[in-house]
Write a structure and sequence with these properties.
It is built from 6 helices and no strands. The longest helix has 24 residues. The chain starts with a helix and ends with a helix.
């Protein structure tokens, strides 16, 4: 859960490439040593960062969207809050049930 929280906050404040380049080399070896599947870890990291892009109050996508459509920022946050909560729920499901995210790679013989 700590890795989820760190990548979620990193997705809020940083560019995707910078967040992955900075934090993945730190946390990936530790998680793999603890028995986490590398494919599952990559999926969870990517989902965390993209969820962070949409999360209030610092989500970069929300800031850009509010400026582009000339909409009040806080009104946009209220409108997207149910979707953000659904993404967090899905993130928790993907984190605790790796079989979901590994089903297709296993069918293809990749994991």
């Amino acid at each position: 859960m700590l890795i989820n929280l760190i990548f979620l906050v990193a997705g809020m404040a940083m560019d995707v490439k910078a967040a992955v380049a900075l934090f993945a080399p730190i946390f990936a070896p530790v998680a793999i040593a603890m028995g986490v599947d590398p494919v599952h870890l990559g999926i969870v990291i990517c989902f965390n960062i993209t969820t962070g892009l949409l999360s209030p109050p610092l989500g970069g996508v929300l800031l850009i969207l509010a400026t582009t459509v000339r909409m009040n920022y806080w009104r946009l946050i209220r409108a997207t809050l149910p979707f953000f909560l659904a993404e967090v729920a899905l993130l928790l499901v993907l984190t605790y049930f790796p079989e979901i995210s590994l089903a297709i790679p296993r069918l293809l013989g990749l994991a």
